Amino acid sequence: MTTGEKWVYMFDEGNKEMRDLLGGKGAGLAEMTRAGLPVPYGFKVTTRACIEYLETGTFPPGLREQILEALRRLEERVGKRFGDPTNPLLVSVRSGARASMPGMMDTVLNLGMNDEVAEGMVRLTNNPRFVYDAYRRFIMMFSDVVMGVHRERFEELFQEKKRELGVTQDVEVDAKSLKELVEEFKALYQREKGEPFPQEPLVQLFRAVEAVFRSWNNPRAVEYRRQNKIPHSWGTAVNVQMMVFGNMGNDSGTGVAFTRNPATGAKELYGEFLQNAQGEDVVAGIRTPMPIARMREVLPEVYEQFVRFAEQLERHYKDVQDLEFTVERGRLYMLQTRSGKRTAVAAFRIATDLVDEGIAEPHEALLTVDPHLFEQLLHPQFDLQEKAKHPLLATGVNASPGAAAGRVVFEADDAVKMAQEWGRVLLVRRQTEPDDIHGMAAAQGILTSIGGATSHAAVVARGMGKPCVAGCGALQIDYEKQQFTVEKDGKLILVRRGDYVSIDGTTGEVFLGDIPTVPSEVMQVVTGRMRPEESEIFQRVSRVLQWADEYRALGVRANADTPRDAMLARRFGAEGVGLCRTEHMFFGEERIPKFQRMILAETREEREAALADLQPFQQQDFEGILEAMDGLPVIIRLLDPPLHEFLPQTEEDIQNLSAKIGIPAERIREKVRALHEVNPMLGHRGCRLGITYPEIYRMQVRAIYEAAAALKKRGLNPVPEVMIPLVGIVQELEVLKEDLTQVAQEVLQREGVDLPIIMGTMIEVPRAALTADEIAQHAAFFSFGTNDLTQTTFGFSRDDAEGKFLDEYITKRILETNPFEVLDRRGVGELVKLGTQRGRQANPNLEVGICGEHGGEPLSVAFCHEADLDYVSCSPPRVPIARLAAAQAQIRQPRQRRRKSPHEAKGGLL
Amino acid sequence: MTTGEKWVYMFDEGNKEMRDLLGGKGAGLAEMTRAGLPVPYGFKVTTRACIEYLETGTFPPGLREQILEALRRLEERVGKRFGDPTNPLLVSVRSGARASMPGMMDTVLNLGMNDEVAEGMVRLTNNPRFVYDAYRRFIMMFSDVVMGVHRERFEELFQEKKRELGVTQDVEVDAKSLKELVEEFKALYQREKGEPFPQEPLVQLFRAVEAVFRSWNNPRAVEYRRQNKIPHSWGTAVNVQMMVFGNMGNDSGTGVAFTRNPATGAKELYGEFLQNAQGEDVVAGIRTPMPIARMREVLPEVYEQFVRFAEQLERHYKDVQDLEFTVERGRLYMLQTRSGKRTAVAAFRIATDLVDEGIAEPHEALLTVDPHLFEQLLHPQFDLQEKAKHPLLATGVNASPGAAAGRVVFEADDAVKMAQEWGRVLLVRRQTEPDDIHGMAAAQGILTSIGGATSHAAVVARGMGKPCVAGCGALQIDYEKQQFTVEKDGKLILVRRGDYVSIDGTTGEVFLGDIPTVPSEVMQVVTGRMRPEESEIFQRVSRVLQWADEYRALGVRANADTPRDAMLARRFGAEGVGLCRTEHMFFGEERIPKFQRMILAETREEREAALADLQPFQQQDFEGILEAMDGLPVIIRLLDPPLHEFLPQTEEDIQNLSAKIGIPAERIREKVRALHEVNPMLGHRGCRLGITYPEIYRMQVRAIYEAAAALKKRGLNPVPEVMIPLVGIVQELEVLKEDLTQVAQEVLQREGVDLPIIMGTMIEVPRAALTADEIAQHAAFFSFGTNDLTQTTFGFSRDDAEGKFLDEYITKRILETNPFEVLDRRGVGELVKLGTQRGRQANPNLEVGICGEHGGEPLSVAFCHEADLDYVSCSPPRVPIARLAAAQAQIRQPRQRRRKSPHEAKGGLL
User: Fold this and answer.
1) Please, which residues have CB within 8 angstroms of residue A418's CB and are 6 or more apart in sequence?
2) What are the tens digits of pLDDT across the range B561-619?
3) Which residue of A559, B483, B574, B614 is 20 to 30 Å from A753, comparing CA positions?
4) Are A374 and A466 in contact, with CB atoms under 8 Å apart?
5) What is the torsion angle, in degrees rounded to the nearest 10, for the CA atoms of residue B269, residue B273, residue B279 and residue B280?
6) A851 tagged catalytic
7) Tens of pLDDT along B613-657?
8) ipTM, 2 decimals?
9) Looking at the partner chain, which of B677, B765, B828 has a beta carbon nearest the beta carbon of A794?
10) Residue of chain B whose Cα is closest to the Cα of A788
11) Cβ B800–A683 below 8 Å, yes or no?
C-alpha cells in the first residue's frame, strides 16, 4: 500500500489502457468522455483501493479525502450540489471489474436522495410521482445492497400497496401512494436496522462504496469468476456518476444495444429500448422492452444520434460495442461502452467483417475472437428431418444459438440435482437471476418467458456457450405446480417437470419432445460430409485461422491415439502429433486378453510370446497414425499406466477372465495382489515399467519402426519420435534409450530402410525439470506432461483433489483457478521455464513442447508462448483454439523464437 | 575424457589427498613409499581410467602407452624385467577403490609367470616347489578372475591330485606334482577357452587390468556398495606392484594387523601372521594363522621393525591403521595401510585415546569416528542372569561385539528366507565369502568355525555392526545334514537347522538356546538405570560428543511424539523438538473412539463436541512434551494424515466399531466410502484438512496454548511453535495462520499469559519450495519434510517404490543410493537449497530446518550443513549421530552460519 497513492480518477482522467486499475466500465467511461461523447460526469475509485479494502477491512489512507475532492469537482462540473434541495445532485454507484461480470456485483442508483432533497426535487420537477418513485427505489436498493435488508421485503410492501389500490402495473401507482411507500420503506428499514434510514448523502456514499467493494466477494460473483477463470485477486473499481433519469416521461427512456448482432454477427444495431424507465428495468428483464429499431419511430433524432455514436465507438475500439444509454427528456446520455460478448458464429463473422469493412487489420480482428468460442462451433445441431417431426410449441428471442434438448426443470437447484439423475435437463424460468447460474451451468439450455436478448438469461447463456431462448411470452409458468402451459391453436398444451422439450437458440424455436441432433456445420465439413464452400461460417473461421497461422510463433500439434483422431487433428490444422498414447491400443476386444496374458506371464519367454502376439496390432495402429500425419512428426509415448489397470479387480471379473484365457483364477488373484499399489499415481509405471520389463518397450519400438519402414517403402515420409515417459533420473533415459535405439536399428537394418531414430522424454515430475540439464543430453525433445507435473508439484492428485477440496479451495480463494484447467504459472510454470532453459542450455537443438490438457487452454497457451516453448499439443478439436490463442499471444507480446516449420499440414482444412 | 590425461601414477607420485583418483590403497601405498617404508614398487591406474573404461568398454586413449612406460620405470627401479626368465619381474594386480570394499573386487597375483619364466625361476631359486606352486596359483586366479573359468574347476583337480598322492594338506604336494598340475591347469584352460593359456606377460597384464576394472560392477561389489551407501560412480583404481613372496620358507610369511584392537579399541597390535604363505591365505581365512604377538617369537627382528612401522603410520595418519605386510626371506615389505574398520566401542575409545596420547587433536579425532557406529552402542546385550542359565557350547574369536540370538541356518539364501519366517536367524558357516553378504545382512549374527579376527566374516560383520564369533574350531559343521556338532565334556552336542543358539561377539562365547537381552550400557545410562560414572564407554562417548558440540554449526533437534521420547531426546542432547506429530496421540484406546466419532459427525456441532472431548488428552500430551523440553523450542505439527486412516476398513472392523460407539454400520461404511482416496499420499490431508475442517486445527491449537499457559503458570518456560503441514500455496498458510493465531490469542488472553505465537510450515511439496518467497512472508520457520518432498520430487511413493522397483534401480545403478535413506542432492537437495534461499530472502529471520528421516543420516546431515540450514531434527537415538556428523561437516567444510543457541540442553546426558 502506498499512502500517497492516487485512488480516485475523474472521468476525463485515464483511458482504455488502464482497465486493470479502473475496471472495464471505468476505462470505457473515461474513453467516451475524452472522445467528447455525452457521458454523465463522475469519478472512479480504483481496483487497488478495493483490494486494499478487502485485505484490511477499512478504507486505505487518503481514499476518503480523495472521494470528497472528486465529489467537489463533480459538483462544479455539472453545476449541482450533493444534498442541496435547491439543486440536488444524485449519483449512481456501480461496480466495474477488469472483466465484465454482468449482474454479479452491486449497484446503487439515485444515491444522494433524502427527505429534503425529495421535496426540493418535487418543487423543481413538479413531478412528485417521479421523485417518490426514485426515492422508493433508492431506499430499496440501498437497504438491500448496502445494509443487507432483502429487497423482497420491500417488494412485498409494494405488492400490497398495488393490491390496496387494485392495480397490477407499477406505473399505475400514483404519487401519493409512492410517498406513503417511502415512509413505509423507511419504517421497515428502521425496524430491521435499529437506526433511521441515513439522510446524510455522504454517509450514503461511503457506505455504498464499501458495499460495492464487498460485493466482489459475494458468492455468485465468486462462482462466476470460478466458471469464467477470472482471478479473485483483481478486485472491482467503483464508478460514481451523476444520475440521469430515463423515467421522466415518454421523451425519456433507457436502452442497451450492441453495435452488431451478438448472436449472428450481422451488421445491425441489436438491442432494446424502454420508454420512461430506469436502466435496471432493462437489464433485469422485468418489463419486455421494444427492439432498438423501433426507437427510430418514437425518438427519431435521438436514435440517429445514437447510431452515430455507436459507429464512432465501434471504429474507435475496432470491435463490437455493448452500449448502455439513457434519454432524459429528449437528451441522449451514454452510460457504458464495452466489448460485446458474442456467440462463436458472431465472433468469426464480425472478425472477418471488421477487416472487410476496413475497420480493423487482421491482427486487430484476431484479438476480438475469444479462442474458447471455437468449441461452440462443434456443438451439435438439430437433425432437420427429425426437427420437422416435432410440433413447434412457441417462438421466443433467439438469445444464444445452438440446439438443446432435455427434461424440463424449474429451479436452479433442481437442475443441478436432476442433471445427475436424468443426464440432460432444460432450465425453464420466467427470468433468471444471478443466483441461478449454477443451474444454468448444469442445464443443456435455458428457456425464459420474460426478457429479451440482453436479459440476464441471454447474456449469461451466451457467456457459457449454452443455447437459450428468451422472452418466450407464450409460456405460462407455474412454479408451484412445476409446469408450464402454452395455448396453441386454441388448445392448452401442458408441459410438466420431467417432460422433454427441445429449444433452438439459433432460431428461437421451442419444440415438444427430444429432437436428436447432428454434427455442426464445421464438424460436417471437417469430417468430409459437407464441402467447405457450402458453409459460410466454415469459410470465415478458416480465414481467421489462416491469419492466426501467419502471426503465431508457437507450433500446434494434437494428442491423437488413433488414425481417425490423427486424421481429424490434421484437418483441424495440427502440425503433427505431440502425444500418441499407446496404452489405449491394448484395450480392443482382441487385444486385451493378449495383454493380460503378457502381464500374467511367469517367465520372460511367456511374456515375450504374448508381446509378439500383440505387436501386429500396435504396428497397424502406428501405420495408420503415421500415414495420417505423413511428413509431420508423430511423438509416440511408450506404455505409461501401471499394469494393474489392465487386470480385473473384482472376484467376478477375475473368474470370467480365468475362464476366458484359461489361466487359473488363483494366479490372476495372486498377480492382482502383487501389483496392487497404495498410490498408483506414484507407483510402478512409465519408464519404471520399461526398466523392469524391458521386453514391453522393445516390442513397442519394434512395432513403431516396422510401421515406419512399411510406409517408407510405400513412398511415404513417416516421422516417428519415441517418447519415454516419467523420466526423473537421467540414468532411466540413458539405459532405455541405449537399449531401444539398438532395437530400432535392428529393425531398420533388417528392413533396409534409412530413418533417423529420434528419442525424447516427457517431463512430468519435478526432478526431471530440476535435472533437465542432465536429461537433455540424452533427449532430442522434451514434452512437458503438465497433468502429472501439476499433481506432483502441488502434491495432490487430480482424482483426490477435485472431488474433495479443490472446489472449496477455489471458493475460498486459496487458488484463483483450477490448476488442472489453467496452468499454474507460479509453481508448475516455473518448473516448465526452468526445465526449458536448463534443457536448451545443455542441448541447444532440444525441441520443447507441452502435451498436457493445458495445451488447448488459451491462458496456458499464452504461458507456453512466453516460456518460449516450440509447440503445444492438445486434443484435435482444440487445435484451432490453440492456434488462435498462440496468435493472440504473439500479437500481444511478440517473441523471437518462431515455430520451425510454417503451417504445412497438407491435409489441413481449417 | 581428456586425451592428454594422466592415467597412471608411480608409487612415489601422489599422496593421501588423492584418494579419489588413486583409491584408498593406492594413496596409502604412495604415502608409505614417500615416507621411506619398504613397499614393493609399482604403479597405479586411476579411478578415472576405470570410469572411462566402464563407459566406453575400451581403454581410454593413452592408457596403454602410459602403462607400458610405467612398467619400464618399475623394471628400472627394481632391476628385474617383466617376462625375462633370467631375472623375472612378477607383479600383483589389485583393485583399490576410494572406500575400502574388502574382498569385493578382484586381484591377480604372480602375474608375469609363464613356462619360460617358471623354468628361469627354478634355476634362480632352486625351489621348484615354490615356483610351480606360484605358477599354479597364477593360472587359477587369472583364469577365474580374468577369464571367467571358475576356480572350483581348478580346486577339483588339486583335490584329485591330493587324493592320488594320499595327502590332505597343500604343503604336502611335491614339486613334481605341482608341475603336473600346472600342465593340467593349462589344459583345462585350453578346453574351456579354446585358446592356449596366454604366455605373453603383457597380454596377461592388460587383460588383468581390464578384469579389475570390470570387477567394480560384479554383483557382490554392487550389493556391498548399496549396503554401505558407496556411490556406484566412483570406480576403482588398479595397483600393479612387484610381487614379494611370503611362501619362500619359514623365514617368510604374510600378515595383517591393526595398530589397535578394532573390536575393543585397546592399544595393542591386533592381527595375525601366517608363516610360509601368500597374503590371500590370510584374508580368505583358509588356514588359521597365529596371533600377531607370536610373530615376535618366530621372527623377532622383523617383528620389532613392524611394530615401529605401525606406530609411525598411526602417527602419520592420526588414526588406527589396518596393515598388510609380507616377509620374504626375513625381509619385511609393507603392502597396504588404510584406516581400520572398527566397532563402536573401539571407535570412541580410540578417538579419546588418540587425543590423550597426543597423537591427534580433538577435531582430528572426531573425524576418525563413523557417526553411524553410535547406533551399535544402543544394541542390546545379554541379560547376565539369563546368560548364566544357558550352557556354554564353545568359545571362538570375539570378532564383532554385541549379543545375538536366533535360529541356526547354514546358507546365505536360507538366512534371507527364514529371517522372514522365523524373525531371528543366526548364520553359521565354516567361513563366509563375498557371496554370503546378503545372508549376513539378514542374520542377527554370524558364527564361523574357521578364520580369525581379520577373516572375511569378521571384517564384514564389524562393518555391518553385527555380532560375530569367528574361528570357533570346536564346531563340526555338516552342510549336507544342515547341522553342527560340538564335543563337550565327552558328550557330542548336536545343533540342527532351526535350533536356537546365542552368541556374544564381545566375549567370543557361544551358547545353546535363546538368551534374552537387556539394554546396552549407553541405553542404561541414558534411561537412568546406570550412573554415567559407572560406564567407561558412556564417558568416552560423552567426551567425543562434547567436542562435536564445540565444532558443529548445525543445530540438532529430535522428532518426538511423546513426553517419554522428548525426555530421551533431551538426554541424547537434542536442542529442542523439530517435529512432534500429533496424529499418534489419537490412537490411544480411550482416544480413538472419540476421534472416530469426530470423523463420523454429521454436523459441525457434533464434530466440535467430539473434538472438545479430545482436547484434554492432547493438552496433557503437549504439557508433558513441553515440560520435558522446558526452555527449548517444540515444533508441533497439526494433524497431517487423511482421516480414513483412522477408520476401520474391513466389514468386520466396521461392525465392531459400530457396536462400540453406537453409530450405525451403514453410516460408517458410507463415510469410509466417502473418504476413500485413489492416492492417499496425494489426497485430502495436511493443511487441506485444516481448511475443510477448521475446527480440528482450532482444537489442537487451543490444546497447545492451554498446555503452554499451564506450564507458564507453574514457572516453566515452554516454547511451543505451531507447524502447519503440507502447505503448497501461500494462501493456505495465510488463511490458517490468521484463524489459528486468533484462537491462540483467545486462549492466552483468557489465561492471562504472555507468550509469543510462533507459526511456521513444513516444506514438503515442490511448489512450496518454488514459492518459498511468498510463503516465508507468513512463516516464522520452515521445516523441510524430506520424506514427502522426496516422494513428490521423484514422483514415486516410498510404499510403492521400495517393494517394486527401487532395489532394481539401485542394482542397475539408475540410482546411487535409496533417496529415502540418503537425501538426493541433485533433485530434492536443489529444492531444499532453493527454498531456503528464497525463504530467507523474503524473511531474513526465517529459521530453517529439516525433519525428514534424513535428519539423522550422516551424508544428509552434511548436505544440510552445506545448504546452510539452521538445524536437523531426527529420531532421539540418532541425535548423537547427527551431532557427530554435523561436527565433521563443519571441520571438513567450515561455514559462517552457526546455530543460534550453543548446546544448552540442560537435561542432556550425552
Assistant:
1) A407, A409, A425
2) 999 999 999 999 999 999 999 988 888 788 889 999 999 998 888 999 999 999 999 99
3) A559
4) no
5) -100
6) yes
7) 999 999 999 999 999 999 999 999 999 999 998 999 889 999 999
8) 0.82
9) B765
10) B795
11) yes
